[in-house]
Structures are given as structure tokens and as C-alpha cells.
């Protein structure tokens, strides 16, 4: 019964509200940073979503019953990329301001949040963030304090510029913004994913330092296994470990924590039995190289 009442609910005051000011939009953009503060597995980001757009809804719906209805349907399941959420906010607020049909607002919200999740993951988690982290981590490893500071400035700065711009742009365009963004979403996502894979490959070569200390007996000329691997495929071991992680996550549905535990076991066992190179005394000495 409650669900039917909720579906049948309509706004009482259908007069379009006054446009929201730039200050209102900016306030809600800052609030969007708390999108996942009340994340849960029933409605995902819904509570943070409602908290973010609440100042706008309060200005649009002066009728308290309409405000309650709006808050209720804006607590529906919601999940999208946090950096791009203001795009959806702007569209929904534009429809709310025009007092659009509630079913329409719901449909638009769902239609916008889905593609943004894939686009955001490919653009940020798989491409932008690894690039920034790779550059600044190198600086930090070299002992520069600028590295972590620069990482924060770039990562936070870019997302905030994007949040503010998307809020303003999508609010002005309304529902038309969905068609503009999703027109080439598939190609855009694929391109960003390819770039992300390229960056990951470059990071494996740059930061992959796993080597083996195994020597193969061969009379007076023992064979350095690591040297042989390098002649066949430089950085073969780091590449193999990377592909193992990919296989575990993609094919075996391992969580990142489980993958970390697997790598930890491989590292410890390999160190005990002298498989990996390092400054330690292994339990097994695969081959002692004769002194020159």
C-alpha cells in the first residue's frame, strides 16, 4: 500500500519555481563531497544524494507536502561516480524547478547515473588517478615532500573544477544534457579504458622490481635465471604477477584484499625458499655462485 501511494504521489504546486542562484548551486556542489558519507548496501548513495540537493529542494518546494514528496522519491536507490554526481544533480534540480512529473524525474535520474559510473571509473580510477599517483609517488620515493602535496592538489583540484562546472552546465541544459553526454559514451569509455591499460603497463615496467636470485648449475658457467628472463622478456616477473592479479580479480572474483593476501603469501614463501632476490638469508640456497 505504501509503495502504491508513493508511486501515485504528485506535486500540489505545479508552478515553476524561480531559478536557483549561483550561490545555491555552489553550496550543493560542496555538499556533493559527502555523497558517500552514509553509503549502505540497500540504497547505496541515496542519503548523501538527498543531503547534497536538499538546499535546492527547499527553495524550489515552498509547499511542505511537496517538499516531503520530493525528499521521499530522492531517497530511492542511487549510485554513480562521486566525481560526476553534480551532473545528475544539475539535471534533477532543473526538472524539480520546472515541477516536472515525478516519474520523469525518477527516470532521468536513473538514466543519468548509470552511464556516469562507467565513464567515471574509466576516466578517473583507471586513467587519471594512476597517472597522477605514478608521477607523484616517484617524487615521494625520491624524498620530495612536494610529491604527496602535489598529488592532493591535482587530484582534489581537478575533481572540484569538474564538479562546479558540471553542476552549472547540466542545470542550464536540463534533461538535454543526458543526450549530449551519453551520445558517444561507449566510445569515450573504451578510449579511456585503453589509455588506462597503457598507463598500467608503463607502471609495471617502471615500478615492477621483482627479480629472482635463482642460478642454474652449468659446470663452471652457472646460468643466471633472471638474466635469461631479461633477454627473453624484460620485466617478465612483474608482468606475470600483474596478470595473476588480473586473473584472480576478473576470473575468480577475488576482492582486492584477497589479492593482497595472495601476494603476501607468495612474497613470504618465496623469500623463505630463496626464490626472490633480496638482502636476506634464504632457507634454501638454490645455487652459490663461485667467487671470481
Question: How would you sum up this structure, described in words?
Answer:
The structure is a single chain. The chain folds into two domains: 9-195, no CATH class; 209-272, no CATH class. A two-stranded antiparallel sheet has the order 1-2. Helices cover 66% and strands 1% of the residues. It has helices at 2-8, 22-31, 46-60, 64-73, 85-97, 102-141, 146-173, 176-182, 185-207, 225-232, 236-250, 256-272; strands at residues 215-216, 223-224. Strand 1 (215-216) and strand 2 (223-224) form a beta hairpin. With 292 residues, it is an all-alpha fold.
Share in helix: 55-70%
Report the average pLDDT across residues: 84
Number of strands: 2
- The number of helices is 12
Mind telling me the C-alpha Rg? 27 Å
Largest sheet: 2 strands, antiparallel
Residue stretches low in confidence (pLDDT < 50, at least 5 long) are 1-7
Strand content: under 5%
Strand order, biggest sheet? 1-2
C-alpha termini separation: 87 Å
Total number of domains: 2
Which tags fit this structure?
292 residues, mainly alpha, 2 domains, 12 helices, elongated
What's the short story on this structure?
The chain is built from 12 helices and 2 strands; from the N terminus they run H-H-H-H-H-H-H-H-H-E-E-H-H-H. It has helices at 2-8, 22-31, 46-60, 64-73, 85-97, 102-141, 146-173, 176-182, 185-207, 225-232, 236-250, 256-272; strands spanning 215-216, 223-224. A two-stranded antiparallel ribbon has the order 1-2.
Amino acid at each position: 500500500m505504501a509503495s502504491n501511494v508513493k508511486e501515485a504521489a504528485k506535486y500540489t504546486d505545479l508552478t515553476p519555481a524561480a531559478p536557483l542562484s549561483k550561490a545555491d548551486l555552489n553550496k550543493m556542489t560542496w555538499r556533493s563531497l559527502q555523497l558517500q558519507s552514509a553509503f549502505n548496501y540497500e540504497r547505496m548513495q541515496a542519503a548523501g544524494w538527498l543531503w547534497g540537493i536538499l538546499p535546492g529542494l527547499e527553495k524550489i518546494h515552498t509547499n511542505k507536502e511537496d517538499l516531503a514528496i520530493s525528499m521521499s522519491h530522492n531517497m530511492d536507490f542511487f549510485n554513480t561516480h562521486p566525481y560526476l554526481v553534480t551532473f545528475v544533480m544539475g539535471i534533477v534540480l532543473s526538472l524539480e524547478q520546472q515541477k516536472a512529473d515525478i516519474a520523469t524525474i525518477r527516470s532521468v535520474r536513473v538514466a543519468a547515473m548509470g552511464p556516469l559510473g562507467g565513464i567515471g571509473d574509466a576516466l578517473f580510477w583507471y586513467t587519471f588517478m594512476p597517472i597522477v599517483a605514478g608521477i607523484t609517488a616517484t617524487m615521494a620515493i625520491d624524498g620530495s615532500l612536494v610529491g604527496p602535496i602535489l598529488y592532493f592538489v591535482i587530484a582534489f583540484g581537478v575533481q572540484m573544477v569538474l564538479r562546479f562546472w558540471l553542476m552549472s552546465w547540466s542545470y542550464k541544459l536540463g534533461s538535454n544534457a543526458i543526450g549530449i553526454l551519453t551520445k558517444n559514451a561507449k566510445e569515450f569509455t573504451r578510449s579511456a579504458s585503453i589509455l588506462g591499460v597503457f598507463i598500467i603497463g608503463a607502471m609495471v615496467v617502471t615500478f615492477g622490481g621483482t627479480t629472482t636470485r635463482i642460478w642454474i648449475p652449468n659446470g663452471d658457467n652457472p646460468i643466471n635465471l633472471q638474466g635469461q628472463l631479461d633477454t627473453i622478456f624484460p620485466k617478465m616477473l612483474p608482468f606475470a604477477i600483474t596478470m595473476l592479479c588480473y586473473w584472480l580479480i576478473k576470473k575468480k572474483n577475488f576482492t582486492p584484499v584477497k589479492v593482497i593476501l595472495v601476494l603476501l603469501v607468495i612474497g613470504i614463501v618465496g623469500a623463505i625458499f630463496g626464490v626472490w632476490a633480496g638482502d636476506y638469508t634464504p632457507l634454501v640456497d638454490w645455487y652459490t655462485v663461485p667467487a671470481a
